[in-house]
Amino acid sequence: MERISYGDIPKGMFEHLQKIEVYIKESSIDNQLLELIKLRVSQKNGCAYCVDMHHKELKKTGETELRLSSLCVWEETPYFSEKERTVLTFADTLTKLQRTPIPDAVYNSLLQFFDKKEICILTLAITQINTWNRLMKTFLFTPGNYVAT
């Protein structure tokens, strides 16, 4: 049951977050890769609402059922490219923070595929989905109602 409904949210709060979403989406990072990040981070955080949403968004991009069902165990599968594996490692690391900086090996592996501006966008995308996950885990929006348009 929802603790906080959409109508209870302060005016402007979601609108400001949506501006960040637009900024990320308009970047040079592929939308399917961004959605893969969002689904993976939402899985790690146990956010049912966001898992439902980003699963549906990935299906809309043409993502396969095999990759969708295997994302939770991506490290043990051959279904993801080196670029995707690098980004998923970064997403996992940034989502489950340690008391130390992100390891050099994780950061340096990103440089094979992305420039520094793109790494900034990836970092923002990962922190943004972590924000959404934390909001949904607090508000308890009902999963299953999201419709990908």
Describe the structure.
This protein is an all-alpha fold. The chain has a single domain (30-139), classed as AhpD-like, CATH 1.20.1290. 62% of the residues lie in helices and 0% in strands. It has helices at residues 13-25, 31-45, 48-60, 65-70, 82-95, 104-110, 116-139. α2 packs parallel to α5 (82-95) and α2 (31-45) packs across α7. The longest helix has 24 residues, at 116-139. The radius of gyration is 15 Å and the shape is globular. The two termini are 25 Å apart. 23% of the residues are buried. The mean pLDDT is 97.
Domain module tally: 1
What share of residues are in beta strands? under 5%
CATH superfamily: AhpD-like
Task: Report the structural category.
Answer: mainly alpha
Q: Report helical residue fraction.
A: 55-70%
| Count, helices | 7
Provide tags for this entry:
mainly alpha; 149 residues; globular; AhpD-like
What is the secondary structure topology, with strand pairs?
Layout: H1 13-25, H2 31-45, H3 48-60, H4 65-70, H5 82-95, H6 104-110, H7 116-139
How do you describe this structure in short?
The chain has 149 residues and is an all-alpha fold. Helices cover 62% and strands 0% of the residues. It has one domain (30-139): Up-down Bundle (AhpD-like).
